[in-house]
Amino acid sequence: MSEKMLEFWRLDLNALAKRARLRSLCPRQGLDFASNDYLGLAESVELKEIAANALARDIPIGATGSRLLRGNHFEHEALETEAAKFFHSESALFFASGFSANQALLATLPQQKDLIFYDSLIHASAHDGMRLSRAGHTSFPHNDINFLEQAIKQWRNKNAVGNPWIIVESLYSMDGDFAPLHDLAQVAHRNEAFLIIDEAHATGVFGPNGRGLAYFLEGAPNIITLHTCGKALGISGALLCLSIYFKQFLVNRARNFIFATAPSPLVAACIREILKYSSKIDDRRIQLLSHIEHTKRCLSFLSHPGPTNSQIQPIIIGSDARALSIAEELNSQGYDIRAIRPPTVPEGSARLRLSVTLNVTESQISQMSSYMYDLIQKEK
Predict the structure, then answer these.
(1) Beta strand 335-336 with 350-355: parallel, antiparallel or unpaired?
(2) What is the three-class DSSP state of 329?
(3) Tens digit of pLDDT for each residue in 216-240?
(4) Checking CA distances to 20, which of 130, 209, 261, 271 falls within 20 to 30 Å?
(5) 201 an active-site residue?
(6) CATH fold of 59-278
């Protein structure tokens, strides 16, 4: 193979490096200010006991095939039954990841004459799903309810005969702010639209028993929620909560459900138990809220944007290179904080994404914030 055959990829990687946007895999080290393990469950004694008990019950690790072949295990179906009860939905469908669930959902359910209206800050997985969809798609400015409703009405006025679909996150992963779910539900009701709510960063943390921010909409026939299990719940996989008709349609039509090896039955068994356990850990949620309030006080030096009311705190730096430099210096002092750069976030908004978890103490949050402040002032 000649070097010329690889020239495109080499030049592209070199261009990323020159713009301080080249990604690389880094080992986890230092204090956790980067993960989505908000409740500190991933390495907890409780979760290890859940896994050990599942293994002791001879739950297999591998599924051996897709769920439409021999890969459909009792634990998959038991999890979906328990999840539907937990999230008060008509049914649930289990996927190996939130990315896969989002992609399958948007690539499969909206049809050719439909139109998907998506918040401009929605997850990358939703964009991939929309690219595969038969339906068209259009964005609306972040959390702009009036713009969204007017856009739906304008589409209707063009003699559109399909269904409108609205896709949002309940808690945005890079900005740390919340969607106005009550207003969105009203827009969906008035305009006979389906509303998809990605609860990835809210599940486990907010709502009764950790059911998410959209708990008050549970069970409505036009509401679909996605709950990831690899963030606050500490495991992996994702659950779509939706009507039985939508579940059956996905089982029959979603290519990355039909043709993928099923998720591990062992993982399904662990998720089933962690959902039960979630109703018993209000103390962890209360402690995390205390951490969040403490972090907000420590980050009071931020002006734009100020501290958020969630466990996700974006510190906007602007320059890609500067964000990377500050993150590297923080890492060298034992604080695992990552720089997030375009295209993950908009141009000119490179940032440090500070994740508040129960894997650190409030004293460590104070020390990190003080050091970060000094670094930002020095960089100016």
Answers:
(1) unpaired
(2) helix
(3) 999 999 999 999 999 999 999 999 9
(4) 130
(5) yes
(6) Aspartate Aminotransferase; domain 2 (3.40.640)
